[in-house]
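User: Can you write out an input/output pair for a complex, sequences first and structure second?

Assistant: Here is one pair. Inputs:
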Amino acid sequence: MKFLHTSDWHLGRQFHNVSLLDDQQAVLEQLISYLENNPVDALVIAGDIYDRSVPPTSAIELMNHFVEKVCGEMKLPVIIIPGNHDGAQRLGFAASQMKSSGLHIIANFDDMLTPVVINSDIGEVAFYGMPYNDPELVRHYTKQPAKDHDQAHQLLLEKIREQFKPQQKNVLLSHCFVDGAIESESERPLSIGGSDRVSHEHFVEFDYVALGHLHQPQKKGEEYIRYSGSLMKYSFSEQHQAKGMTLVELDQNGFQSATHIPLTAPHQMRIIEGELATLIEQGKTDPNSHDYILARLMDKHAILDPMEKLRKVYPNVLHLEKPGMLIGVDQQMGKARLARGELDMFKDFFLEAKQEPLNSQQEQAVSEIISKLTRQQEA
Amino acid sequence: MKFLHTSDWHLGRQFHNVSLLDDQQAVLEQLISYLENNPVDALVIAGDIYDRSVPPTSAIELMNHFVEKVCGEMKLPVIIIPGNHDGAQRLGFAASQMKSSGLHIIANFDDMLTPVVINSDIGEVAFYGMPYNDPELVRHYTKQPAKDHDQAHQLLLEKIREQFKPQQKNVLLSHCFVDGAIESESERPLSIGGSDRVSHEHFVEFDYVALGHLHQPQKKGEEYIRYSGSLMKYSFSEQHQAKGMTLVELDQNGFQSATHIPLTAPHQMRIIEGELATLIEQGKTDPNSHDYILARLMDKHAILDPMEKLRKVYPNVLHLEKPGMLIGVDQQMGKARLARGELDMFKDFFLEAKQEPLNSQQEQAVSEIISKLTRQQEA
């Protein structure tokens, strides 16, 4: 019995004001293509389908197209829980009416207690989905104290375990932060101060736990308690993370294996570092020059419009950093100080703009203006 | 063969900053209760389920509850088209996955050409839904010129008629403005300058046409081309409109009858008119004092905080008009002029606040202040 585990699609996400929808569409097409060539018994998505509770129409249409293809044409059961980015009620509209078509959106506590049962070569496998909920909602539902996410999970899992049937294998979908797992920059914290951490111990009775929320693929505590990671990279700091989905195999004894299946977005997110001239030279022959780029310029002098220059070879430079221009961070002021003074900066600028250096008379004049402005600022 | 025709629910609508959701819920419960006692073969909703393309979560939950009850428990087919207030793509998410449960949301042109076929005692009845579209979208879809709503309807109806099957009766759902029909204040115009009008002639080949958009129940051109009107009143000017739904009966020959089934919101919307003291007296014994009230005060003198006074007997006064205080409207300025001068107004106010009249010294002082202010204003 095989199923695909994926999570954190964040459809409709913007990255430095660029829509990632075309990349997301391309990655979903790879996913569909994988399914066509490698039949499985189900696809599970452990939350954060959309990036916002009210997603843009274009993201809804992309998801609709995916569902049409996978549930409608390929007749593959798809099991979904909302994550902290999704709007559970919006995502869950008419969920009961979708079930018979194989689209299972588990958006509330009642649905949580009725697993999606898949009949397979190893018998029945029950998929329980725990829709993302903060402890407040769990207190309201269970009428029991739950001061943090860990206690909330414990209470909900007790209710789920009561539903276990001896002849069934049990899979759980949960969108949460398992204690000790590795964060990425593109996740939105569930709460402040560590009260969002959940112990992996709650999960050990399941045959597999399909986790969502953290964007780096990883296991936690046991081989069968896993994050698939996000559909694609959502921050430059994820440049070296392997993105994709997890192919899970169960057998008569339960968990058998988990395999990472890579997915590759057309534009990778990566950081390039060096002096502008070097980067431009390198860009001319870079086969992936269309990637989404964060450029760290190491030049120690000011440059006129470096973004425009760099975009001639790397058209999708989304952000520039100029560490070469900084000499450490002024802790007290919380501000970075410039390594070069104003006069030197202006001389750089003038040379670049006019193609000739300042003459001594001009330098004198600029110097006086800067002194005057500096005195005014300090007064 | 019987079905219920309704439209223009506008779930989530606000009226003078009051949420109408509780009233809408109560009316939907009446609708469900009617269905429980009077079985029909289908329920059709001709657009404007929600009041906005991004409805509030509470409105989505109310609609979800309704669908659960009617499609899920009662197993009654429900056929829906989006109106000009709805967001077709949002409403239509996973529509294909809902069909097998009897929930048919016809949100795009492709679905328009595949009718929902209901098998009944008179044989097959095909329900075609024309989701609301402006002419621009119809031009794009048909690749033919359509300068206005009338031509757009004509083009779409040609495509629909090509699907007609000899053994089927044909019902159409459309959200549009049929030429010559009566408007209400609470509708949002489809376009400006009359280009939204559609001829009823396009519809004559159907056995019944379930229209939405106009809020007053009415037929147009033929007995079988009808607006059910809105679920409830959505403006004070609708105070005398009968609200409800239309029970349609078809027989072997097609259309047989249409019957208005009334629905009553817990709070009616109505206008009361008279002097404040009279209205307060009348309110003390008014059995419907909780209605949503527009009060027209006919008093000719200024009154301190009339809203607060009136709300003691009519707690849901939502708006006040003071025609007694106006002597016609200054056409040139577009402003209403007050019938009483500033000094008289202040005397009214002082008497009411202090329970004693201005003495002559006070009157002199106030008069001087008013003169001074008036001179300043005119200068």
